[in-house]
Write a structure and sequence with these properties.
Length: 74
């Protein structure tokens, strides 16, 4: 499993946007389907809410990626 840190400047950010911007999903629509179908976990729990608010410290697991969300100034 590939582990990455994801820097966010806007807090909170919606879950599907992170999947799209990190190229885990090819589009926002694909990201929403991944979430709705139960293929994404947030902090160890299956998450089916596309617009789940994500904050620094949250850990997202999708496909073969583990994303740790951190606050970024950039």
């Amino acid at each position: 499993m590939e582990k990455r840190q994801v820097g966010v400047t806007t807090i909170p950010v919606e879950l599907y946007k992170i999947l799209k911007f990190e190229n885990i999903a090819a589009s926002g629509g694909e990201a929403k389907y991944m979430i709705a179908d139960g293929h994404v976990r947030v902090n160890g729990q299956v998450e089916t809410r596309k617009r789940r608010k994500i904050f620094p410290g949250d850990v997202i697991i999708a496909s073969e990626y583990e994303l740790t969300v951190v606050e970024s100034d950039e």
